[in-house]
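can u do me a favor
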């Protein structure tokens, strides 16, 4: 049976190595398997859950599409579209927010992290954001959702919402309960400045992440300045538990080389970080630099990017409109 793949990325700028290794690289592999039908969404409705400059948002939407294509997603094979253009997403999100329970949303750790201390000032959209994410996934009868580890809890919520809707309205299997596709190792890439914090678009220091638009010199400089400890590289995996920065860099290396952690450790055990960082820079540059150059080239061709979004909209809208129509009938509208 064909797998129906759906995933989304927020167009909030600064797409980075974490987005790439945790999600986009997997999108490319899934896109290349002819058994799969893939849909990749630029989730601008999610982006506005925190304040955005409208001009930046527009250009970040283009940059996200350019990143998908530059990384190797083929818009002829996969649907690439912009969430806000398909109105069924907002509509389904409302209906599903009447199915989701406050208690479920109150458990979402990402809201707690993003809202910070002053929850009263967070937007309602930021709170209900996982319900919109469920709408995205469920509208397309998606069977598999590739994401980084930080989205795991949101996918569990999506599964709960799908099951509750099916039970409440007594229609077995109306919504497909999707499976997460989260890599077992390295599904959470950490900041280059703090091995306990996730690599993130919103981190103030640009040195904390490798952006997919960084050039060769920027990448080399950021890896050179990445935080490490004073010991040589370990010879046993267990030692990494107490050395988060070393673990992260070894993880990035392993992920890019498609190696196990053990293999990388065997290669570098006892060596110092400066030698390891040189090797790491080389492979990050080899992987990211062609993508960064391609992104820049594609950003000069807005007509091409708009065409991808228009074609994607037509295909996505056809699928989502049919599903929302059925949802209307089921709920009694
Ligand atoms: P977003 O835009 O924050 O991130 C996009 C993807 O990148 C992954 N990711 C990471 N993976 C590993 N290490 C990191 N440091 C790291 N940072 C980000 C995320 O897990 C994600 O897969 N809510 C989603 C977007 C979304 C979505 C959806 C995803 C909206 N609707 C439906 C799947 C299905 C988000 O904000 O991702």
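np, heres the sequence
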């Amino acid at each position: 049976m064909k797998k129906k793949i759906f995933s989304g990325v927020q167009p909030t700028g600064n797409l980075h190595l974490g987005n790439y290794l945790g999600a986009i690289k997997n999108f490319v592999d899934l896109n290349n398997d002819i058994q799969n039908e893939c849909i990749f969404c630029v989730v601008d409705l999610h982006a506005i859950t925190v304040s955005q400059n409208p001009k930046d948002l527009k250009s970040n939407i283009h940059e996200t599409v350019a990143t998908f294509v530059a990384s190797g997603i083929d818009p002829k094979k996969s649907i690439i579209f912009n969430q806000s253009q398909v109105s069924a997403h907002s509509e389904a999100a409302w209906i599903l927010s009447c199915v989701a329970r406050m208690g479920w949303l109150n458990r979402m750790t990402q809201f707690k992290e993003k809202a910070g201390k002053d929850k009263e000032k967070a937007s309602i959209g930021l709170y209900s954001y996982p319900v919109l994410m469920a709408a995205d996934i469920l509208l397309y009868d998606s069977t598999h959702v590739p994401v980084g580890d930080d989205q795991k809890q949101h996918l569990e919520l999506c599964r709960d919402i799908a099951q509750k809707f099916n039970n409440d309205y007594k229609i077995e299997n109306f919504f497909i309960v999707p499976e997460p596709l989260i890599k077992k190792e390295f599904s959470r890439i950490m900041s280059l400045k703090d091995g306990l914090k996730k690599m993130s678009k919103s981190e103030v220091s640009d040195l904390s992440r490798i952006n997919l638009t960084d050039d060769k010199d920027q990448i080399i400089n950021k890896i050179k300045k990445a935080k490490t400890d004073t010991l040589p590289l370990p010879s046993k995996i267990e030692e990494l538990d107490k050395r988060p920065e070393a673990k992260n860099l070894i993880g990035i290396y392993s992920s890019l080389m498609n190696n196990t952690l053990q293999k990388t450790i065997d290669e570098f055990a006892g060596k110092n970080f400066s030698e390891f960082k040189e090797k790491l820079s080389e492979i990050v540059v080899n992987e990211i630099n062609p993508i960064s150059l391609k992104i820049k080239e594609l950003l000069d061709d807005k007509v091409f990017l708009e065409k991808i979004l228009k074609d994607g909209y037509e295909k996505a809208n056809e699928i989502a409109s049919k599903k929302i129509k059925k949802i209307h009938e089921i709920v009694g509208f």
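The chain has two domains: 3-187+302-331, 206-297. hope that helps!!
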